[in-house]
Amino acid sequence: MSENTESDNIELHDRILAFVRDELATTTEREGLTATTPLLEAGILDSLRTARLIAWLRDDLKVRVPPLAMTGKNFHNIDRITDLVASLRATLTSAIALGKEPAR
């Protein structure tokens, strides 16, 4: 069973930050965007942009975010999104290792 290493999580974090900065944030919003910027309060994530982010997570990172995990807390900032994705990947890896069908 493979586990997420710290370097995997750093790469994941950087990919999510780059996507949010380059694909979701406006030019003005990019100024000062950090891993701890509150994305909802800053207006960087609204319903449409959150949907785009979730689609990108599914298509590019191969992580399906279950509806119950689509909360403001989990999408508060880049750090929390990274934690969510790492957690969902670990759950998927464990389910596969146990021969169970991953929850959808």
UniProtKB/TrEMBL annotation:
Which Gene3D superfamilies does the UniProt record give?
ACP-like
Pfam families from the UniProt entry: PP-binding (PF00550)
Native organism: Pendulispora brunnea
Q: Which domain of life is it from?
A: Bacteria
| Positions of the Carrier domain | 7-89
Tell me which PROSITE patterns the record gives. Answer: CARRIER
Q: What is this protein called?
A: Acyl carrier protein
- InterPro entries (UniProt xref): ACP-like_sf, PP-bd_ACP
